[in-house]
Amino acid sequence: MVNPDPSAESSDGSPTQPETPEQTRHAAGTGDNPAGPGHKTLDEKLADLPIPLHNPAIVEEQARRASDIQLRIADWITGFAGSMKFVYLHIALFTLWMLFIEKSPWPTLTLIVSLEAIFLSTFVMIGQNRQAAFQQAKADRDFTQQELELKTNTQLTREIDRLTTELHQRLMGDATR
Questions:
Q1: What are phi and psi of 15, to 5 degrees?
Q2: In angstroms, rounded to a whole number, what is the distance separating the alpha carbons of residues 157 and 45?
Q3: Whose CB among 39, 76, 105, 150 lies 3.0–4.6 Å from 35's, allowing a Cys bridge?
Q4: pLDDT tens digits for 86-135?
């Protein structure tokens, strides 16, 4: 619990701390619950909600990639090819090749490097295609969720309007009488 700072003031010089004991209890979170005893406050209800670690589209994509052996192999190759281990390995292999296996101008090494570039570019394109498909799936899911929220908010707004109109009519009396 944070203790109030009696010297705290807002920009206009007025005190920022609660002035009454009830305000102090409420600010500290120890006051009575307006919903009554035995009811959870909104903060308590929100704290009880499960917080997902990842977007459901991410979980689905990870499960799909884990279930396909070809995608797992492609993931491993692109992960390795995009690492510093890959760079160090190639520096060592190229150095050994140029010093001990083939003398200049290294025609076999050139062929090997060209073939490797072809395959690596293919794996990069596979990764880009998977990423594009994943982004599309995530965008579709986000769109669906946003549309559902919009529909729910529209229904709630209409219900609030209806209830406000009904309450106004009850309090002010029917204007048609």
A1: -65, 145
A2: 23
A3: 39
A4: 999 999 999 999 999 988 888 999 999 999 999 999 988 988 988 898 88
Question: Helix (H, G, I), strand (E, B), or coil: what is residue 15?
Answer: strand
Domain borders along the chain are 56-172
Query: Which segments of the chain have a pLDDT < 50?
Result: 1-12, 14-18, 177
Separation of first and last alpha carbons in the chain: 56
146 within 8 A of 100, measured Cβ to Cβ: no
Helix (H) or strand (E) segment spanning residue 117: helix 107-172
For 165, counting Cβ atoms within 10 Å of its Cβ (0-12 exposed, 13-18 middle, 19+ buried), the class is: exposed
The values of phi and psi at residue 6, to 5°, are -65, -20
